[in-house]
Amino acid sequence: MAIVIIAGLLFRGNLSFDRSFFFLKKQDKSCKIVKTSFLRNYGPLQVKRYSYLDIKMMTNSFKTKLGQGGFGSVYKGKLPDGSLVAVKVLNRSKGDGGEFMNEVATISRTSHVNIVSLLGFCFEGSKRALIYEFMHNGSLEKFIFDAKIPQKGHHLGWETLERISIGIAQGLEYLHRGCNTKILHFDIKPHNILLDENFWPKISDFGLAKICDRKESIVLMLGARGTAGYIAPEVYGMMLSEMVGGRRNINVQADNSSEIYFPHWIYKRLELDQELGLQSIVNEEDKVRARKMIIVSLWCIQTDPSNRPAMKEVIEMLVGSVESLQIPPKPCLFSPPKSPAVTDSSTTLVSIQ
């Protein structure tokens, strides 16, 4: 009887081992397919690959969490040379790794003061992580959406906000025209803008980015991609209006749809030459900066792509005088749904001049 039990346990053990081996083999095969496809499309990488053990060591077993998102978690880490890094550990349910390797490929192709630097990555079965340069002040989101809480002292001041808006525009212009290939970032929003110790902005999160031919000036996107209202790169203006208003464009607490959409509200005040009613404007210089950012944001969100300025023009508008700016046509955009996620298919024309 004992022999039968032992034999049964050994059989179950071997079966369990075989299943585990089969799973690991299948996972390893999937990983190799993704990497082969990646090398064929993008060529060899210029960034270092780390093992999962390396990731655990550099984060001190994931001791300090910097942030949490739908993609996974970001942890504070340290490289052997003492350099601080931010380690983005992706959820295991991230598919076969195609989107992950797309992000690795996209960022590794960039080199710009307003683009976050990718220092390395980990792709070990279902374990995936990205190692970025460490940004001491985290995301722009916490500084603008908490601006109404005085004790936190989060309002950055209009001079800093203007500098951040110019930096982001310069980063986008580089992605469109400065790279060997055009890179479209489909999720430009405050959460994806990181700030260093001097509040210098850097664009991050390239998981949904698209690399396209330099000859293309208009890209037709079929299907949902990114966050509603932040899809076309020029709709950077949506984020710009959030920076100005110190609130999300969509106020989910409001019942009246005409009151929840900030661009409509601010355009009416601009059209009637009323006070902008914005917080922390303390002098004439602040008023000029706010007005300029509002006008630029409204030009950027024009529904017709031919009416939207190219990012080079956006920079010129932001650094120029407010007197030279014309008031754009009234935005034809309707108030987006209260849910920030895109759930249905859509067709979007993206101007990438």
From TrEMBL:
Top EC category: transferase
Main location: membrane
Binding site for ATP: 88
Domain Protein kinase: 60-325
UniProt-listed InterPro entries: Kinase-like_dom_sf, LRK10/LRL21-25-like, Prot_kinase_dom, Protein_kinase_ATP_BS, Ser/Thr_kinase_AS
Subcellular location per the Swiss-Prot or TrEMBL entry: Membrane
SMART domains hit by this protein: S_TKc (SM00220)
Keyword Glycoprotein: yes
Keyword annotations: ATP-binding, Glycoprotein, Hydrolase, Kinase, Membrane, Nucleotide-binding, Serine/threonine-protein kinase, Signal, Transferase, Transmembrane, Transmembrane helix
Protein name as annotated: non-specific serine/threonine protein kinase
UniProt source species: Rosa chinensis
